[in-house]
Every structure is written in C-alpha cells, then in structure tokens.
Amino acid sequence: MGYGYGPWGMMDGWGYGYGYGLVHMAIWVVILAAIIGGIMWLVRLLAVNDERHALPRRSASLDVLEERYARGEINRDEYLQKKQDMRS
To answer: Which of 21, 51, 58, 78 could share a disulfide with 74, CB 3.0–4.6 Å?
Structure first.
C-alpha cells in the first residue's frame, strides 16, 4: 500500500474517478467529432470552389461549326458569321 491511495493505487484504479473518466471520454468524443466535421466542411468548400473556377463548357454546335470549317465545307467569312450568330 502506498500512502493512503487504496489497494488499487491512486484514486482506486479509476484515474480521476469514475465520473471524471466518462466526462473526459465525452470531451474527447466531442473534440474528435469537431475535427471530423471541420475536415468534411473544408472538403466541401474546396469542391464548390473547384466547380466555380472550371472553364465554361463549349457548345456542341460550335464544335460542329469548327469541324465544318476545318474540313473546308464553309469559308472563313461564313465561319466567323455563324460563330458570331451563335454567341448572340
């Protein structure tokens, strides 16, 4: 026996006592949940920012127009006119 700490050691083998052990465990669970929640929030925030900075999607009609121009089916003036018509 050592200096009045009982047969189980300091605080009867419960560390800080039974009630304090549960409180400490609950505090750590809350801290862990806050860390996980913060990581999830950060990942979602970064995913939203990536979508905002993505290049605008091109229309399929512009792709077809460029292919026709590349094959020589339409001339440059016709290509530029149709391209301007698509944008307006």
So the answer is: 78
Contact call for residues 86 and 80 (beta carbons, < 8 A): no
Residues 6 or more apart whose Cβ sits within 8 Å of residue 20: 14
> Mind listing the pLDDT tens digit for each residue in 16-74?
555 567 778 889 999 999 999 999 999 888 877 666 666 667 788 989 999 999 999 99
In this structure, are residues 54 and 30 in contact, taking their beta carbons and an 8 Å threshold? no
The label of the residue with tokens 């950060």 reads 42
Count Cβ atoms below 10 Å from residue 83 Cβ, excluding itself: 14
Domain boundaries of the chain, sorted by first residue: 30-87
